Amino acid sequence: MTHPALSGQPDSRLVSTSASASEAPILLRAEGISKRFGITQALRDVSVSFRAGEVHALMGENGAGKSTLGKVIGGLHKQDAGTVRIAARGGMDLRQGEGHVLRAGSMEDAFDAGIRIVHQELAQCPNLSVAENLCLHDLPRNRLGLVDFGGAERRAEHLLALLEPAIDVRAPLGSLSPGHRQIVQIAQSLDERTSGAEGDGEDGRGSPRVIVLDEPTSSLAIVEVDRLLTIVRQLAARGLTIIYVSHRMSEIFAVCDRVTVLRDGRFVATSNVKDIDEAALVEQMIGRKITGTARSARSTAISQAGESREKSGGGLVVRNLVSQGRLKDVSLEVRPGEIVGVGGLVGAGRSELLDAIFGLDAGARGTVIANGKTVCDGRHNGPVAAIGAGMGYVPEDRKLQGLFFQLGVGENIAVPVMRRLAAMGLRRLSAERRLVHDRLRDFQVKTASPRSVPGELSGGNQQKLLLARWMGAETKVLLLDEPTRGIDVGTKAEVHRLISAAADGGAAVLLVSSEMPELLMLSDRVIVLCDGGLTGELTGDRMTQSEILRLATVDAPVGAVQ
Known about the structure:
By secondary structure, the protein is α/β, with parallel strands linked by helices. Among the domains are: about 5-120 and about 210-285, P-loop containing nucleotide triphosphate hydrolases (Rossmann fold), CATH 3.40.50; about 300-390 and about 475-550, P-loop containing nucleotide triphosphate hydrolases (Rossmann fold). About 30% of the residues lie in helices and about 20% in strands. It has 20 helices and 20 strands. The strands form 4 sheets. It has a 6-stranded mixed sheet with strand order 6-7-8-3-9-10, sandwiched between helices. Helix 6 (about 180-190) packs parallel to helix 7. The termini are far apart.
């Protein structure tokens, strides 16, 4: 049987005769859900209804309970109280019938009822082909019991037919862009087969009806985001209910029909997106109004601060930085007290530039001077030398590059300054505890204890932990790569304030962000990369999204842009 989401036809079993999702039947209802993790009450008596064929956003600050609710619905977490109920197949509205109560904490029952979840962190095998990834849980076999690779490829092509048929199912998954990898994961959620506990997919059993998307665009470029949002609307138009967890306001207003806000694990409100504006939504999320944190025009102050500090060799100077296949003769300067944004598309070399400056690219060659100290003169002296010169780096991938998951939260914060706090080569634990206490408070990292490991924190709190490590007074040159990724809107405003405060305190800040409004709001200047080379610098009225995109799509000139 071919599911309507793959055939391109609306699902008459799910979609009401009205074209409006607001009039569609209630397909799924979470009732009185409570969930505790240790001493943390993640959800408190939360009740939400989801309609057939709608895109329903779940929003809230980090720790509000959005992802936890999605995982309870998908059977990954067993709730302490409450029920998840789904309408019987065949179009039954929960307002007119009891439906089916899912077994708490049963992924098999949720899967067979048609509920899928696509996690924020991609759960894939990059060394295997696209087809193998899509069929990994149930590889087709021939009469001899061997893997039928041809059958796997045909199944993969079928799953990708609606979403992105141009994806080569034989290609290694790791060779795909992040956007295409996300599409592959969504395609996997469209698989019709049951968990194997009962049934074989006949009469619709096991075919997808609800997909939970947890921060699906967090690592995507602008073009890839637009494509993914189009796919989300297509799936909803064909009868699937999409539960969309995201921090990005623009996406909520672009793709969602309704939005439910959670705060501190409690239900706040459910609204039609067309009936609410961004300011009201933010106020629901954080319980207060926030104001913008745009940097005021401070060119004179920056110039004066820069001139006084340049005499003592402050700031960041990069000259003729090259790396085979990554960077092409990049030169730039960031004065003390200045925020310089780095624009460009995915693959332009923005993260590679920050890696090379910090000393993570062993093949990079050139000159890097941080806070008056030369850390790279031909060959880089490495990250330890960079840290010793007062440089801090918040990388794009907090799991692979940023955090130490075997160490406690407190040690993760104190790592760069342990040597400075030590006495006669011995750690001063009392000084470390004071430092950790202050950083946890200032950055509002929610953790049960400084001894907790980062894996026990939410994605947003992991990001705030990484910021807390590097944004101290000892950091004079600050490299930030997507510093607000996975952070809720309230905390994002606070992080913006902290970044501006770091610059106001004399730090030279080099900022990479794929969110152009954020880049333009925070930056004093913007440099743009394309294919590993600098293509231009924007200041004043020329700092616009259209100018960044123009420079991001032209060939890099030979030599540097000053």
